[in-house]
Heat shock protein 15
Amino acid sequence: MSVVGFDVGNESCVVAVARQRGIDVVLNDESKRETPAIVCFGDKQRFLGTAGAATSMMNPKNTISQVKRLIGRQFSDPELQDLKSLPFLVTEGPDGYPLIHARYLGETRTFTPTQILGMVLSDLKSIAEKNLNAAVVDCCIGIPVYFTDLQRRAVIDAATIAGLHRFVSFTRLQLLLWLMDVRGHIKRDEFEQISVPILERVKKPLEKALVEAGLTIESIHSVEVVGSGSRVPAIIKI
C-alpha cells in the first residue's frame, strides 16, 4: 500500500505518493501538479478542483474558495473581517461560526467550511486513487503549526467526511524528514508572559459558567481542575 500525502493551501492543493524509494507528485486530470482548492456549485451538479476553477468565471457567487482560512474559526475572528470582499456569501451561523451560502440543485443551501473542505479532500482522494488504481483511506494531511486545536479537529472532521484517516503537522513532518529531536528551556516568567492571550481566553468561559450557574466566586468552596493544564501555576491562579 502506497503512502499518500495531501498539501492543502488557500488557493491550491498538491497530492504526493511515496513509491520506488522516492516521492512522486501526482498529476490531476489536467496533467497539472497543483489542483485548485475550489468547489463550484451548479444547478445540476458540483464541480471540484480544476473543473470548479474552469466554471468559476461563469458562476462566481457559487464558487467557494479560501476555505482553509475559514476552517475552525469564528465569524468574529479578526482574520475573517474581509469576508465581504469574497464573491460568495458568508454569514454568521447560530453557533458563531461561518456559514457559506450557495445555490445548488435549484435551491439556496448553506454549508460549513468543514463540509467544503471535505469536498476538496474527496477530490484529492479521487486523484490519488486514479493514479494508484487502489482505494485510499490512510493518508498524511499537512496541518499548519499555527492552527488551533479547534482548527485541527475541523480538518479531521473534513477528512472523515472524505473517508480519510490520519493527519500530521507541517512541523512534525519536517522533524521526521531530518530526524531532529528539538528541546529547549524557558523561564516561567517568560512562559507566562507569552501565554497572556491564551490565559485571558481561559478566564472567559469560567466567568460564563459562573453567570449561567447563578454563582459568585465567594460562594464556591473548592474547584477540581483536571487535565494537563492543571499543572500550570498560571492556570491555577485564575
About this structure: Residues 188-237 form one domain. The longest helix spans residues 113-132. The two ends are 50 Å apart (CA to CA).
